[in-house]
Amino acid sequence: MQRILVCDDDREIVEAIDIYLSQEGYEILKAYDGEEALEILKKEEVHLIILDIMMPRLDGMRATRKIREFSSAPIILLSARTEDADKILGLNAGADDYITKPFSPLELIARVKSQLRRYTQLGTLAENDEHVYRTGGLEVNDEKKEVLLEGEPVRLTPIEYNILLFLIKNLGKVFSIEQIYENIWNEQAIGVDNTVAVHIRHIREKIEINPKDPQYLKVVWGIGYKLEKR
Description:
The structure is a single chain. This protein has two domains: 3-127, Response regulator (Rossmann fold); 132-227, Winged helix-like DNA-binding domain superfamily/Winged helix DNA-binding domain (Arc Repressor Mutant, subunit A). 41% of the residues lie in helices and 20% in strands. The protein has eight helices and eleven strands. The protein has helices spanning 11-22, 34-41, 60-67, 84-93, 105-128, 158-168, 177-185, 195-207; strands at residues 3-7, 27-31, 48-52, 75-79, 97-100, 132-135, 138-141, 146-149, 152-153, 217-220, 224-227. Strands 2-1-3-4-5 form a five-stranded parallel sheet, sandwiched between helices. Strands 6-7-8-9 form a four-stranded antiparallel sheet, sandwiched between helices. α2 packs parallel to α3 (60-67) and α6 (158-168) packs across α8. The protein is elongated, with a radius of gyration of 20 Å.
C-alpha cells in the first residue's frame, strides 16, 4: 500500500484529505507543521507528500527544500494564493505540483495519482534501464530518443537532443563551447560563432520553468556550460 504524508496546520483539511485518499486505498500519515513532517519522513517510508505552504514553525517552502536534501518523493504544495510567482517559487524549491485552495476532491485525487504514477515509472526506468539518464525531473531515454520533463514529453531538434544527451551523460562537468561543438558536430571547432549558444538557449526554453534563472542547464561564466546534478 502506498503511503502519503499530509501536512497542514488546519486539522479539518488534513482530515478531509485523509477521507478522500483513504477511500482510494492509500495509507495516510498526518503532520501539522513542517518540523513534524520532517520527523515523520526521517522515520517512515513515504511515497508522496502533500504540504501546505503557510504553516507555523517551518513553512511548506522551507520544508520542501529540507526534504529534497534526503528524499525524492513527489511533493504537492497547497496554497490559498493563486499568483504564478508563488507556483514558480514552489516548483523551484523542489515541489512537483501545486494545488490552489479550495480544491475539489476529484482534482486532488487525480493529481496524486498522476504524481505517484510518474514517480513509480521514472524510478523504475532510472534503476533498470542503462539507456536512461536522469537528473531531478528531467529524463533522457536514449533508446527511445525521448526526453521527459516531470513525466511530460519535450520536443527537441536532433542537435538539441544530442547536446542535452552529451551533457546529461556528464552531469556536473563543465564543457567549453568548443568542446561541445567538437563532440556534437564531430569536427574541429575553428572560429565557432554563437551556434552552440543559440542551441543552448533553445534547450533552456524547453526544459526550464524560467529560462532566465535555469535550474538544469547552467552557464559557468568564462568557461562553458554544464547540466546540474539535482
